[in-house]
Amino acid sequence: MKEYRKLAAIMFTDIVGYSALMSKDEKQAMNVLEKNREIHKSAIERFNGEYIKEIGDGTLSIFQSSFDAVNCAIEIQKACCKESSLLVRIGIHIGDIILKDDDVFGDGVNIASRIEAAGEPSGIYISGRVYEDIKNKTEIHAEFIGERTFKNIDHPLKVYALREGGLTSSQKSIPKSTRFSRLKKRKYAVIVGVVCICTILTLLIINLINQKDSLNLNKNLIAVAVFENQTGDESLDPVGRMTSDWITQGIASTGLVSVMPSFKLKTITEIHQNMDGIRSVAEETTAQTIITGVFYKEGNNLQFHAHIVNARDGEILNAVGPISGPDDNPLKSIEQLRQKIMGALAAIFDKKFKNYSDRTLNPPLFEAYREFLLGVDLFFNYEYEQAIHHFYLAAYIDTNYYLPLLWVNGAYLNCQEYRKMDSLCQILEKHRTYLSVGEQHHLEWLIAILQGDLEGAYKAACNAASFYLIFEYQKALDALNANRPLNSIEALSELEPDLLHFPGWYWEVLAQAYHICGNFKEELATAERGREKHPTLFSAYWNELKALAALGKIEKINQLIAESLNLSKSEDWTPGTPGWLMLITAQELRAHGYPEEAKKVIERSIEWYNTHSADEYRYDLASAYYVAERWDESQKLFELLVEEEPEKIEYLGYLGAIAARNGKFEEAKRISMFIADLDLPYLFGEDSYWRARIAAAIGNKELSVQLLRKAIAQGIRMWNYDIPIYEAMDFESLNDYPPFQELIKPKE
Predict the structure, then answer these.
(1) Which own/partner contact pairs does 146-151 have at CB distance under 8 Å and 24+ positions apart?
(2) Would you state the torsion angle of the CA atoms of residues 464, 467, 470, 474, taken in this order, to the nearest 10 degrees?
(3) Higher local confidence (pLDDT), 407 or 17
(4) 303 — alpha (psi -120 to 50), left (phi > 0) or beta?
(5) What are residue 229's DSSP bridge partners?
(6) Could you give the CA distance from residue 86 to residue 18 in angstroms, rounded to a whole number?
(7) What is the pLDDT of residues 207-242, one digit of tens each?
(8) Which of 162, 174, 247, 579 could bond to 193 as cystine, CB 3.0-4.6 Å?
(9) Which spans in 140-222 are helix H?
(10) What tens digit of pLDDT does each residue of 354-377 get?
(11) pLDDT exceeding 70 applies to what percent of the chain?
(12) Are strands 301-310 and 58-63 parallel, antiparallel or unpaired?
């Protein structure tokens, strides 16, 4: 679908408390979701809107006008208020959007999402731009609640709450008990439901904003205020202190930030009613982040709500709740609340969360997040089996936490466990509606990789990069794989070189991008910087040797090869040996017009392999013999390898190419057809690639390019040291063949 821009009113909605409902009663949660879908689709259609997609329990839709969007939102809230278990938040903004592939993107979408997330249960929040469009509509009333600063939005926004026809920002209240009725005449009346609490908190935040400049606060210190008892039962007052203590202990155990010991705090029981409450805690403790909360009675349950607030500017960093549990065992609910708050703080303060998680993801239970981080560390240490164990454990601890399962698939991918990866992708696809937007793009990337769709993988990585920092790096790699080196260079120019755990990764990808572009001088400069930072990595030597070979700097090549003989095996994302470095260098020298120098280097490679473990390096030695045009010795080794693995395509491919080199064209064609008839899954074009090499060795240029084009469509990467295209000596006969040159030409 063609990409285009337009101005639209964007509406985000989500169901309040849906995750908690799902954890308690999955069947009821699914009924609520279906009812929510029915209400939304009906209303959006009536007001000329376009229902774009569901995002977990939320929706995204667009309208031609602010007036239509606002009236649709009002109708949705009125319909939802008739459903006892359906509490919805709505946010609306009007702005420029990008429409592509039945989805929408752009700053306008992000702003609408932030406004919705800051809203109140049963409330409709709109931006200042929407207010300007509807302020003269006498039937619609909006109340200014202040300027808000939102994450990833570089300027404050005016926010309004709709007050239309009796529809306040929170229509649904908590039913009163008889104890509530008896306490009506108290000086401080009990607040019924979350609505009033949020309204008062909003006024408090405005007050804080006006006073923020006078505060001298520690950004790495947190204070947890005593939770307010809104049950009307004074005997439950100790629960507020217990909640504060339990959360404080939990935060201290994370090591993420410092936390003020709860016994040092004064008892502030009216923080949500007193607009100076949060400021008082901040001044008392110097903590910049304050956690406040309330609990109230709902039948035989206690229900808890918490806010994590930046005391400097009043921004609500995260809202946690509602979390409910039996009133005769409040600790069970408090522990779940604590885990959620700890997870929310990890999302705010832990850089790893921002690097490896969807920025819009609702924070998981902290225990689940801790298991996820253990898995990530093992993943980047190449210990994939153990990483998978911790990822699955994280998903088990928090069943609403899907991100670890996406990382399981990443481990399966690196282990080439494609069948397991495919199976898990199918399961996740069935649960797509529960994934965040970023997680959906992550899943789309995995599916594209499985399908060998390199262009699709690049597009999915670009989309996911808006939500995950790690996908900023993946985007650069996928651009290179899709023959988009300029896009790769552009992406990497904006990133930190050594943020990823894979040492040398950044420099290798950037150097290869320059290589494919033919900018060998810049490639060499990049490789030199990379080797300076990582002098023990084989990949750092490889990067520099490739550039030197392209430039014909033979003396420097010999010097670098001599140095590489002293390298020991390293934990490198591109492992190698001195013999392998010489093999790659010889291929590069030959590809760039230095055949005599290539012969000398490849003979040194063969010598190195013959003086080391023959069994361990048989494939590399057989490949070196091939590059040296020592066909008989290469054939003998590959025949031994085929006896052990009869369907190993690269072994068969080399045998087919050797047959062609020896003039045995019928034998070469027979091997090519044998490869074509192999019914093996997840080849990603490897079979077509080797058949293309055999065809080129025979001299059939047209068939070779045809098969190579097919291989690329099936998933062969344009940059791959295991399956080279630019450096493969069998494709030398195609160098002056225009269809081949057009095929390998980098995309703009």
Answers:
(1) 146/202, 146/205, 146/206, 146/209, 147/209, 148/115, 148/118, 148/315, 149/313, 149/315, 150/111, 150/114, 150/115, 150/118, 150/315, 151/114, 151/359
(2) 20
(3) 407
(4) beta
(5) 295
(6) 9
(7) 544 444 456 788 888 888 888 888 888 888 888 887
(8) 174
(9) 178-182, 193-211
(10) 667 766 667 788 888 888 888 888
(11) 86
(12) unpaired
Residues 6+ apart with CB under 8 A from 267: 226, 241
Higher pLDDT, 499 or 597: 597
Angle (CA) 723-725-731 rounded to 5° is 120
Q: How confident is the model at residue 167 (pLDDT cuts 50, 70, 90)?
A: low
**More reliable by pLDDT, 186 or 741:** 741
602 and 586 Cβ atoms separated by less than 8 Å: yes
End-to-end C-alpha distance for the chain, whole angstroms = 19
Task: Work out the pLDDT band at 266, boundaries 50, 70, 90.
Answer: low
Alpha-carbon gap, residue 656 to 659, rounded angstroms: 5
pLDDT for 499: 65
Kindly state the tokens that stand for 648. Answer: 């190993």
> What pLDDT, on the 0 to 100 scale, is given for residue 310?
82
Contact 11, 69 (CB under 8 A): yes
**Position 262: which residue type?**
S
Structure tokens given for 299: 């039948």
Cα–Cα distances (Å) from 266 to 5, 224, 263, 269, 432, in that order, read 54, 11, 8, 9, 46
pLDDT band, very low/low/confident/very high, at 30 (cuts 50, 70, 90)? confident
How many angstroms separate the CA atoms of 337 and 332, rounded? 9
Which phi-psi region, left, alpha or beta, contains residue 476 (left: φ > 0; alpha: ψ -120 to 50)? alpha
pTM of the model: 0.64
Cα–Cα distance between 133 and 293 in angstroms, integer?
Answer: 36
The residue ranking higher by pLDDT, 485 or 339, is 485
Structure tokens at 224: 């947890």
At 91-113, the pLDDT tens digits run: 999 988 888 777 888 888 888 88
Of 530, 613, 612, give the one whose Cα is nearest residue 574.
Answer: 530
> Residue type at 198?
C
CB-based contacts of 181: which residues, under 8 Å, 6+ apart?
A: none
Query: What is the pLDDT averaged over residues 232-257?
Result: 80
Largest alpha-carbon pair distance within the chain?
A: 104
| Joined tokens for residue 132 | 């300007």
**In this structure, are strands 228-229 and 287-298 parallel, antiparallel, or unpaired?**
parallel
pLDDT > 60? residue 735 = yes
| Cα–Cα distance for residue pair 461/446, rounded to 1 Å | 10
pLDDT number for residue 272 = 46
Rounded CA-CA distance 528/553 in Å is 14
Backbone torsion region of residue 90, taken as left when φ is above 0, otherwise alpha when ψ lies between -120 and 50, otherwise beta: beta
Burial label for 639, CB within 10 Å (0-12, 13-18, 19+), is middle
- Residue whose pair of structure tokens reads 């949705």 in the numeric block: 76
CA dihedral 56, 306, 335, 188 (to 10 degrees): -140
Residue 573 CA to residue 517 CA, distance in Å, equals 23
In sequence order, the 6+-apart residues with CB closer than 8 A to the CB of 396 are none
pLDDT digits (tens, 9 = 90+) for 382-395: 889 999 999 999 88
Q: Indicate if the pLDDT at residue 550 is higher than 80.
A: yes
Contacts of 660 (CB under 8 A, 6+ apart): 668, 694, 697, 698
Which DSSP string do the residues of 521-581 spell out, in sequence order? Answer: HHHHHHHHHHHHH-TT-HHHHHHHHHHHHHHT-HHHHHHHHHHHTT------SS---HHHH
Query: What single-letter amino acid sits at 327?
Result: D
Distance CA 673, CA 664 (A): 15
